[in-house]
Design brief:
By secondary structure, this protein is an all-alpha fold. It is about 95% helix and about 0% strand.
């Protein structure tokens, strides 16, 4: 009986560790998505600004 209880405790601890790692990975991915999204948005604005400036020079 004691071995069964120890095994159950170990399984619960391992499950908690895996859930924590999964949560950390999801948070890291969310942060990367936000940062990369901001970088892409900034590049798009910069590209559009250049495009507008270049089109003014052609006139």
């Amino acid at each position: 009986m004691a071995d069964s209880h120890k095994l159950e405790v170990l399984c619960k601890q391992r499950m908690a560790e895996l859930q924590t790692k999964q949560w950390e990975a999801e948070m890291r991915n969310n942060i990367l998505d936000q940062v990369l999204g901001q970088v892409a948005h900034a590049r798009l604005i910069k590209f559009n600004r250049r495009k507008v400036l270049d089109s003014d020079e052609e006139d």
